[in-house]
Structures are given as structure tokens and as C-alpha cells.
Amino acid sequence: MQERKGPVFIVATANDVTQLPPELLRKGRFDELFFVDLPAHSC
Fold first, then answer.
1. Residues 11-39: pLDDT tens digits?
2. Which residues contact 29 (CB under 8 A, 6 or more apart)?
3. How far apart are CA 20 and CA 17, in angstroms?
4. For residue 3, how many C-alpha atoms fall within 13 Å in the half-sphere facing its CB?
5. What is the rounded CA–CA span in Å between residue 33 and residue 37?
6. How many angstroms separate the CA atoms of 4 and 6, rounded?
7. What does each C-alpha distance from 21 to 4, 14, 17, 26, 38 come to in angstroms?
8. pTM for this one?
9. What's the rounded Cα separation, in Å, for the pair 14 and 20?
């Protein structure tokens, strides 16, 4: 991604963030981490 001249938006997903290697979670790799839960079941 370093050769990109313009802004870049990357989305990554993981089922279990605790299983990711620490080099992926170090500061500066991703700006923000968000948790999105499953939708509630309504009948």
C-alpha cells in the first residue's frame, strides 16, 4: 500500500481477533477497530 498516491480505505474482518498475530494489531497498522455484533432476532 506504500506506493499508493491517494487515500486508501481498507476493510478487514476476523471471527476471533484474539487469534490474529500481534504484528497485525500493532499501533499504526489499522486506525480503528470496531466490533459489530450479530443482529438481534425479532419475531
1. 888 888 889 888 888 887 777 888 888 88
2. 23
3. 5
4. 0
5. 13
6. 6
7. 25, 12, 9, 9, 24
8. 0.47
9. 8
Instruction: State the CB neighbour count (10 A cutoff) for residue 18.
Output: 6
CA distance 15 to 37: 11
Contact residues for 25 (Cβ-Cβ < 8 A; gap 6+) = 17, 33
Q: Which residues contact 12 (CB under 8 A, 6 or more apart)?
A: 30
19-to-3, 6, 28 alpha-carbon distances in Å: 29, 32, 19
Taking the CB of residue 25, how many other CB atoms lie within 10 A of it?
13
